[in-house]
Specification:
Chain lengths: ~700, ~700
């Protein structure tokens, strides 16, 4: 069952505690906004010193109100808020909005006060929005609530917007009319002491008034919950988010390759990708795309037609369409013939169709109809450059009418004429999305297609494996302190317990024993330094491949010891690791790893290994536990997937086996969250799964 | 000496041939624009049927005018244009603008007419702008010429704008007031039958009225000239360009690796990069950046301060600043202390400085002054979110005043309040750039820094080498037909003539001879199939490395022959190439190549070689001839430069030797433009230049 926030969004009565009759105060502006927008419920201003505010009877106290109160909006001084909460409890108000600022955001004293506030509302079984928030809006005809103190008039539509930043919300509300951004519901979550983005998104999942969810976040309240909820919601309706990256203290000290490759933004990037949330970087992009989802149909395919009266913008649009995976398709002969009948001789009837500046409203309308009727066309970008001698509003309306009659995806673009957008929107309540940039329209259609693919993609499952968890448990027990790398022999055993193909390994404590071990393994062998503190082995010249015989082994190990001495770290040497030398000519070196983030849990990483790891950073992350779909996706989303699949006549590696190992590592960190960093690097995959081997591995205990 | 277009931009008298008294016609609108904008010279309407137009005496013919005419604007029907040119010749007019359309752009008949037009103007020694153009603007007080037929009033400033697309130019002129885009000069070059973008950019180089050059292009008139001119101009003033990529027929059929990696956009991308032109993708970006260059100082360093009254936008700005290479620096203690004295208690005086919504104009002004005075700060982004209770115009003006007094780079941002931009610009003619997006401001400062680095970078020289051009000439002579790959032995000789380190190579015509050759070279050897039509050797399993002895060689060659048979292409086998087996463990596989574009000439390519070439496409291009600076730049701009410099304890390859070989290849294609494709792949570079070898090479003759 999803979170119930209906008393916030659909209240039948609202008490404004701290309403004021003094213009310019928040208490005056908020009540004024509620009245001016035409709230369709009962309003009860509460103010101990006033009889009437904004022509409405005012109450000295909440308890004086006889009617039921669904929602209380508190805008008192911060030290009066707790008392007001007590009154709400007495009045049996279950939903409160605390507009008041001065809590967590101002430092220590505020943190304490906020904790008391949370404790109280929790004790009383209330849901609270805020503190330090801007309020709430529902434009639905039956509600018509503008419960914010911001200037600007909300425009009705199907977009839900939840904003963690008040200022950004305010900025957006200023431009909604201009850019025709139709909001269904808006909520400023402020310090999100109780109601968080997760609650709101979850609530909107089953809310028919919200077609598209837009989110502005500065931090995740609970990343795992965000992932769980959004994975579900995005299968029903699109979620578009802006998230500032900034600091991520969670993985700061990571010393593994995996940890080093996870940036401050990796958690956010991974969360969005894995949950199907569309991430954008600017407010403009968020609402352009939101508008497109809200007002246009999802395109069925990627074949796009472009209509224009000016060559330049169309060329730029073709480029962008191409970049976004759209196909600027050949029109059918029938369409071209019919177009030819309505356009001037110099016009081009090939896609992009250029009507030239002489095209009037009628030509535009007919051309739009013809393009959208073409069986080769899935979607259209309809561009209107500023016409020299026609009425832009009229042409735009004619185009919109043609689009309204079609069941295909189309975006109308009025270049450099923002004022037209609002005008047409006003005259024609039902209309397709109208943009002011043709490139953005192409981009939006590309994003809609990607969303469609996501929506239709299978969900995947968390796979179980028959592994020896007991064995791993008993190894962990040996370690008394945390924050330590496991000895290699323990790493070796753990991977064997999980049936992951660590290469046969013997550890020799000295040169003499290494000769014995090498003979046991069989030449040629690989020799590596062994030492808990010798982390990046090749940095200290401590890895030798393809050692042919005893003499070479002795030479190599002597050289390694000399190298370590030169660097003054020979006391860190604890022995030598001996392994068979496996040619990786027919295998591909990858890296598979995991790193734990304090908030989001374990992130698994997979990508191209070897010396290219740091240079190309061709790796992808997923949050554990991974599903089979996640494993498929991570393997296919790295660029080197082409190499895994075999280039220049090479055979493909066993991709199923790659996925299996990714899922096993996911299981390992899920079973044992105490492992904070794991590097399986290089993990060489070959066409034959039996020849696929982990050549080196490190595990850190938290 | 640069191109002289002064009679176009600074005419003392203009004849408008085809002026009309009928509102709505181009002839009426253009004359009206000239008058309304207050042209400071003499206007002579020419129309056989009118006595006066727009209250000015009109002339039946150009020859009736007694005064000298500097510039003629022709807007007659297309079949009257040639006659008008004849009259211009008689009247000794040397500069003509042909607004009339219906030439090259409409097909065959128009192409013929345009050719006649070009021939005539050339014969008469005239310079012609157009045909099919929108005209010209110069906002300078002494000229004040709006010689276009477009609606909208030009705003004076320091930006020069040359547009190949009329529609795009028109769209821009509609928004210049709104976004405060100050033009100094604007020119629509239309079909650029004579005056091209190159002429205009060259002319603006020494024009003090133009501080920044902006360019919209659909095609390059002469790419090599563009490169030569822009390389010079960008050292004086910034050039910002939009170029739609679209088709590039020049390299379509390339079959080499180098050719395959060059995309339709490579020529444009390379031209811009190599000439220091800043490429942007949208009109918005072009003019935001143009405004920044025009109205702000170049930042001295990358340390940026951010001022705001709202947290959210500031966080997004920090992210973008970081992405653009800016350092959101720690403010000095002195600054923080002084800020503390003027802000409210809850405000943050750490960068980004958050004044909170309560900040008024005075606080904003003082904070701006303090930030710009801080010795740690090179540049500032000053953000104003919509204030609840203050006058935005006043705050903005106060900020602008503080910036005007400073000598540092600063951009003022009024979020979501476009109307403020125009208002402040009107009230305060001298003002810093005012943006409506804080992220764009951070981006613009980043671009300004990059431009500064380019401006200060050394020019480089084309280096000469002592090579045997005669030897190469005589090899080329052997080939009677073009479009053919040279035999490997010829390739081998050519590279030796240019002292490029092709690996020692013997070519055996059969297995027997290959055994003899292998022994001559000394085992281990490499064997490769040899055959003019066997292009991608590893695709046919035709490369064997590290062959230890005669038996292995026989085995390998038998297997290769069997493979070819299986694919049915054994008749293409002409023999075997034998080379010493060089371990590339301490070397790095690169690819160095060249491909000829029909318009831009030879593009050199350098990048990471081996199986990663196609996957990572980590290659860069430069147009030949390369300077020493170009060679340095190409090597340092690939991601794998890190690998060349040595990772994980490996030594750096000999970078000087890499550059030397790049310059030699540049010389080779410059000396012999008949080579259309060259692949040196792999070209293995090692720390020791004597061990650096070209392991395979192909050269195609055009």
């Amino acid at each position: 069952m999803s979170t119930d926030l209906s008393k916030f969004f659909y209240p039948k009565s609202i008490a404004v505690i701290g309403a004021s009759s003094k213009p310019g105060t928040l208490g005056y502006e908020l009540l004024g906004n509620l009245m001016n927008f035409g709230y369709n419920g009962k309003l009860f201003p509460v103010n101990p010193k006033a009889d009437a505010i904004h022509s409405i009877k005012s109450y000295k106290s909440l308890l004086e109100i006889k009617d039921d109160v669904d929602l209380a909006v508190i805008m008192l001084g911060k030290h009066l808020v707790l008392t007001a909460i007590d009154e709400c409890k007495k009045k049996k108000v279950k939903s409160v909005i605390v507009i008041t600022a001065g809590f967590k955001e101002v430092g220590e004293e505020g943190v304490t006060l906020e904790k008391e506030l949370i404790a109280k509302t929790k004790k009383y079984g209330m849901r609270m929005l805020g503190p330090n928030c801007m309020g709430i809006i529902n434009t639905k005809k039956e509600v018509q609530m503008n419960g914010t103190f911001i200037k600007g008039t909300p425009v009705p539509g199907g977009i839900g917007f939840v904003s963690q930043s008040g200022a950004l919300g305010a900025a957006v509300l200023r431009i909604i009319e201009k850019y025709d951004i139709g909001f269904s519901q808006f909520v400023s979550i402020g310090n999100k002491a109780d109601v968080s983005e997760n609650d709101v998104i979850d609530y909107w999942k089953d809310n028919d008034d919200v077609n598209v969810i837009t989110v502005y976040l500065e931090s995740f309240s609970d990343p795992k919950e965000f992932l769980r909820i959004c994975k579900e919601v995005t299968k029903t309706k699109p979620v578009i988010a802006i998230k500032a990256a900034k600091t991520n203290a969670g993985m700061k000290a990571a010393s593994s390759h995996t940890g080093a490759l996870a940036s401050a933004d990796t958690v956010a990037e991974t969360l969005f990708e894995q949950s199907g949330v569309i991430r954008v970087n600017t407010v403009e992009d968020m609402f352009n795309l939101g508008k497109a989802f809200d007002r246009a149909r999802l395109p069925v395919g990627n074949r796009v037609a472009i209509l224009t009266n000016a060559g330049g913008p169309a060329i730029l649009t073709v480029d962008e369409a191409d970049r976004c995976g759209l196909d600027v398709v050949n029109l059918s002969e029938k369409t071209k013939k019919k177009l030819r009948e309505i356009v001037v001789a110099e016009a081009s009837v090939n896609n992009p169709v250029d009507l030239l500046p002489s095209a009037n409203a009628d030509v535009y309308k007919k051309a739009t109809e013809l393009l959208l009727a073409d069986e080769n066309v899935d979607a259209a970008v309809l561009i209107l450059g500023p016409p020299l001698m026609f009425d832009t509003v009229e042409i735009t309306k004619y185009m919109c009418e043609a689009v309204n009659k079609s069941n295909k995806c189309a975006i109308v673009v009025v270049m450099s004429q923002d004022e037209i957008i609002a005008e047409v929107a006003k005259q024609m309540p039902v209309h397709p999305p109208i943009f002011n940039s043709a490139e953005k329209a192409a981009w939006a259609i590309g994003e809609m297609l990607k969303y469609k693919a996501w929506k239709e993609s299978p969900d995947g499952k968390v796979k179980q494996f028959n592994v020896n968890t007991k064995g791993v448990r008993s190894i962990i027990k040996k370690y008394k302190t945390g924050n330590v790398y496991l000895d290699f022999d323990d790493v070796y055993d753990i991977l064997n317990h999980y049936k992951m193909p660590i290469v046969e390994t013997l550890i020799a404590r000295n040169v003499q024993q290494s000769i014995y071990d090498a003979n046991k393994i069989g030449f040629p062998v690989v020799a590596k330094v062994f030492g808990r503190e010798l982390v990046h082995k090749s940095d200290v010249g401590g890895v030798a491949l393809n050692i042919q015989d005893e003499d070479e082994l002795i030479n190599v190990e002597s050289r390694i010891i000399a190298n370590l001495k030169e660097k003054g770290i020979d006391d860190k040497l604890e022995g030598f690791i001996l392994q068979p030398f496996a040619k990786i000519e027919d295998g591909v070196e990858t890296i598979l790893g995991a790193v734990k983030d304090a908030n989001a849990g374990h992130l698994l990483m997979f990508g191209l290994g070897g010396i290219f790891v740091e240079v190309f950073k061709d790796v992808k992350f997923k949050i554990a536990p991974l599903t089979t779909a996640d494993a498929k996706s991570i393997v296919r989303s790295i660029k080197s997937y082409e190499i895994l699949k075999g280039v220049r006549g090479k055979k493909s590696v066993d991709i199923d086996f790659v996925e299996e190992n990714i899922l096993k590592l996911s299981k390992l960190v899920t079973d044992f969250p105490e492992f904070t960093e794991i590097d399986l690097n290089p993990f060489v995959f070959s066409p034959n799964r039996n020849k696929s081997k982990i050549l080196d591995a490190r595990i850190k205990l938290g």
